[in-house]
Amino acid sequence: MIYRVAVRALCEFTARSGDLDHRFTPSPTAQEGMAGHLLVAERRGEAYLAELPLSGEYRAGPETEDVLVVAGRADGYDPIANRLEEVKTHRGDLRRMAGNQRVLHWAQVRLYGALLCRERKLEEVTLALVYLEIGSGRETVLTERASSDALEVFLAEQCRRFLAWARQEAEHRVRRDTALVSLTFPHPQFRRGQRELAESVYKAASTGRCLMLQAPTGIGKTLGTLFPMLTAMPRQSLDRLFFLTMKTPGRRLALESLATLGFVPHDAPPRDAAGQAELRVLELIARDKACEHPDKACQGDACPLARGFYDRLPVARQAAVTRGWLDREALREVALAHQVCPYYLGQELARWCDLVVGDVNHYFDLNAMLHGLTQLNHWRVGVLVDEAHNLVERARGMFSATLDQQRLTALRRCAPAVLKSALERVSRCWSELGKSVKLHDEAVGLGDVPAYRVLDEPPQRMLNALQQATSAISDYLAERASTDSALQEFLFEALHLCRLAERFGEHSLFDVMRHGRGRAVLTLRNLVPADFLAPRLAATHATVLFSATLSPARYYRDLLGLPNDAPWLEVASPFAEEQLEVRIRSDISTRFSQRDASIAPIIAVLAAQYRHLPGNYLAFFSSFAYLKAVLAHFREGHGDIPVWEQTRGMREVERQAFIDGFVPGGQGIGFAVLGGAFGEGIDLPGDRLIGAFVATLGLPPFDPVNEQLKARLQARFGRGDDYTYRVPGLTKVVQAAGRVIRGPEDRGVVVLMDDRFARGEVRAMLPSWWRVAAT
User: Fold this and answer.
1) HSE on the CB side for 349, CA within 13 Å?
2) Helix %, strand %, coil % of the chain (to 5)
3) Which burial class, exposed, middle or buried, applies to 45 when counting CB atoms under 10 A from its CB (0-12, 13-18, 19+)?
4) 226-267 pLDDT tens trace
5) Cα 523–391–215 angle (5° rounding)?
6) Nearest 5 degrees, angle CA 523-CA 529-CA 535?
7) How many CB atoms lie within 10 A of CB 771?
8) Most confident region among 28-32, 358-362, 647-651 by mean pLDDT
9) Residue 276: which pLDDT band, with cuts at 50, 70 and 90?
C-alpha cells in the first residue's frame, strides 16, 4: 500500500521533543514571512533554486509492499556551493527560540537533504538553517556538513516511525468505514418528521451541497443529523466530520447522541481484543476551561504538564486514539495519566479523530484550527452546524475588532520609554478621530449615551500608526522576554484590527463612539459575515445548518454566504396544535416608554396562570433591568410562589443550578432574559417545564449602530428593517417558546405579552403549527 506524507507533517510527528513552550513570542505575520523568504532568495546568486520540489519513497523492506512517499518544497538550494537552505523568519533575539523549534527545523532540512542527495546523486551536502530577523533583515546562518549515508539513515528512521502510525491509521479507516456502513438507527422507529430530516441530510452529503434545515424543537435534530452524516462518511469518502455548536449544552447533546449510536463512552466496559475504537470522537473545549494550572505559564520551567510534553506525547497520543471516546473528562484522564497538558493534547488529536465536537469558532473564526487542518491536509469534510440561527451574530463578532482609547491612555502612563513615541503617534490619531465626533448636545457623549460617527473610509493614518506600534511592541517583547500583560493585550487587539482592516470591504464599516472627553472607541464592525463565511463553506464537501428557527431562508442565505442553489427544507412539526396553547395578550405593551405601566398586568398574567395550573414556568424579558423590576413587584404581591432568576455574568455552575431548579413535578417560575443562556439550547422535557411567558418582541435596540446596520442591509439586500430588527427578534421569541414542548407527550402554554404580536406581519413569522388565540 502507498502512503503519503509532507516533509513538514512528518517532522512534526516524529521529530518534536522537549518542553511545550507557549510563552508569548511575537512572530512575523504570514505576509511578513513570505516577504522574508523572497528577500533571502533575492540575496542569493542567479543559480539559486528557490522553492525546490523534492520527493522520495521509503520501502519498509523487501517482504512488504508498503511504501511511504515523502514530498515537499525546500526553501532554496545553491548548486554551486552545494548548500541546501531552510529559511525561518523571526522577531527579536534568536536565543529566545524554544529548543523544540530548533530541533524541528534541523529535522526538516535534514529530510530535504536526504531527498536532494537521492535525486541528484550527491555524496554530501551542506545544510543551512537561515534565520532572518524580520525587523532588521539580519541573517543568522547555522550550517552542518552531512553525508548522504547519514541523511539516508535519518530519513529511514523518521519514515519507519511514521509508517507504523500510517498503517495503524489505514487499518482504523477500514474498521471505521466498515462500522459506519452497517450503522443502524438506535431506536425501533424514527420520531414523526425525523426520517424526513435524516433523509435530507443524507442527500445533502451524497450530492455535496449546503443545506438549510428548519425542524421543530423536540424532533431529535441532533441524532437525526448525526446518524445520516455518519452513514454517508464511508460512502462519500469523508475524512472528517465536524459537529459545531454555539453553547456547551449543544456539545453535550451531540455526545449523548453518539453514545446512543453505540460509540461507547469512556466509562463503559473495556473494548474487545481489537483494542481500537471504531470511531474516534473528540470534544474540543476552550483553553481556559481545560487548563490544569491556570496560575502557571505554558512553558516547561513553569508548568509540570508542559515540561517534557513532546517526549511524552507519542505514548499519550497512542493511548488516546486507542481509547477513541475523548470527551472532556476522558481526554483529561488520558492526559493526566501521561502527565501532558489536556488542552494541547486535544489540539494534537484534532488531526487524528474522525468526529470533532466543538464550538463554531473552531472552523469559522479568522484563524480557525479545524479549517486550517482541512486546507493543509486536503480533507474531505462534512460539517453540521447546530442552532445555526446564531451563526449570523457569532460570525459578526469573529470578524469585528474594537480598540478603546482609555486602554491606550492607561498603557502610555506605564509604557517603557522606548515605546513612548510609537504610542504617542497612535494617541494623536485617536484624538483626531475623537474630535471628529461632534457633541451636538453637551449631555450627549458625556453621560450614558455616547456620541457616534461612521467613518467614510478606513482611518489609514490610525492604521499606519497602529502597525508601527505593533511592530515596536513586538520587538520590545521579543528582545526582553517581557510578560507585560497590558502590552500583550493591546498588541493582540491592535493586530486583530489591522489584519481585519486588510480585508475591509462593503461587508464592514469603521465607526467611532465618543464617551465624553478623552475617550473614543474605534470599531471595525462586520455587518455581513457572508463574505468571510462563503469560502469556509466552499471548503467543505457538505454542510448542514439546522435549527428550529431558520427562516426566512433568504435571510440566512444572504447573511451566511450560502450558495444561491442551497436548498431550504422545513420539516413538519410532529406535535399537534392541541399540545401547545398559545395566547397573545394584546392589551399589554412592552415598549420602553410603557414598561412601568406593563409591570402590573404582566404580574397578573403570571400569577393567574400559575394558580390555575401550578408547575414549572419560564418568564422571559428584554433586559435584566426589566426582569428585576417585574420580579421585585412579583415577590411583593405573590411571595408564596417560588421564583429564581438569571443574573448577569452567571458562571457555568450557576447556570446549571438555575436549570436544575426545574425538577420533575416541581413548581415555580424562573425569570430569564430573552436571547440569553436559557432562551435556547436547554432541554426540560415533561413537567420539568409546562409553560413560558414572553414579555418582549425581542427586537434589538433602536440605536445608531443598528440603524447603520439597517441602512447597509437595505442597500445590499433590500430588507433592512426585517434583517435588522424583526427576524432576529422573533427568532429569539420562537426559540424561547420552544423550550416548552420537547416530546410527543408534552403539554404546555405560551403567553406572548405585547400588542405587536397580534399584527399580521408578526403572526406570519410564528410557527405554522401554533394555534394562536388573542385576548
Assistant:
1) 39
2) 45, 20, 35
3) exposed
4) 999 999 999 999 999 999 999 887 899 999 999 999 886 544
5) 160
6) 130
7) 11
8) 358-362
9) low
Cα of 41 vs its chain's centroid, Å: 37
Q: What pLDDT shows up at residue 120?
A: 96
| Full DSSP string of 49-97 | EEEEEEEEEEE--TT---EEEEEEEEEEEETTTTEEEEEEEE-S-GGGS
Cα–Cα distance measured from residue 661 to residue 667, given in angstroms and rounded to the nearest whole number: 9
Q: In whole angstroms, give the CA distance from residue 442 to residue 464.
A: 32
Assign 27 to helix, strand or coil.
Answer: coil
What cell numbers appear for 172 in the block? Answer: 482504523
Q: Cα dist. 585→418, 670, 730, 765 in Å?
A: 65, 20, 16, 17
SS3 273: coil
Q: What does each C-alpha distance from 732 to 548, 618, 698 come to in angstroms?
A: 11, 14, 6
Residues 244 and 361: their CA atoms lie apart, in Å, by 8
Alpha-helical runs (H) found in 436-480: 460-480
Name the band, by pLDDT with cuts 50, 70 and 90, for residue 443.
very low
Residue 453 to residue 167: CA distance in whole angstroms: 60
Distance CA 360, CA 376 (A): 19
Q: How far apart are CA 357 and CA 243, in angstroms?
A: 5
Nearest to 261 by CA among 206, 336, 180, 374: 180
In the three-class reduction of DSSP (H, G, I as helix; E, B as strand; rest coil), residue 388 is classed as: helix
Task: Specify the pTM.
Answer: 0.90
Nearest to 36 by CA among 8, 94, 75: 75
Q: Give the pLDDT of residue 449.
A: 60
Euclidean distance between CA atoms 301 and 299, whole angstroms? 6
Cis peptide before 552 (omega within 30 of 0): yes
| Cα dist from 111 to 2, 56, 146, 153, 731, whole Å | 19, 10, 11, 10, 56
Which amino acid is located at 436 in the chain? Answer: S
For the ranges 32-36, 554-558, 694-698, the lowest mean pLDDT is seen at: 32-36
DSSP conformational letter for 385: E
Q: How confident is the model at residue 32 (pLDDT cuts 50, 70, 90)?
A: confident
Average pLDDT over residues 100-111: 92
Find which of 9-13, 236-240, 295-299, 569-573 is predicted with most confidence, using mean pLDDT: 236-240
Q: Is 175 left (phi over 0), alpha (psi -120 to 50) or beta?
A: alpha
CB 64 within 8 A of CB 160: no
What does the pLDDT read at residue 518? 65
- What is residue 272's predicted lDDT score, i.e. its pLDDT? 41
DSSP letter for each residue of 469-531:
HHHHHHHHHHHHT---HHHHHHHHHHHHHHHHHTT-STTEEEEEEE-STT-EEEEEEES-THH
Percent pLDDT > 90 in the chain is 73
Each residue of 370-411: pLDDT tens digit? 999 999 889 999 999 999 999 999 999 999 999 998 889 999
CA–CA gap between residue 730 and residue 714 (Å, rounded): 19
Which of 544, 534, 551 has its CA nearest to residue 203?
544
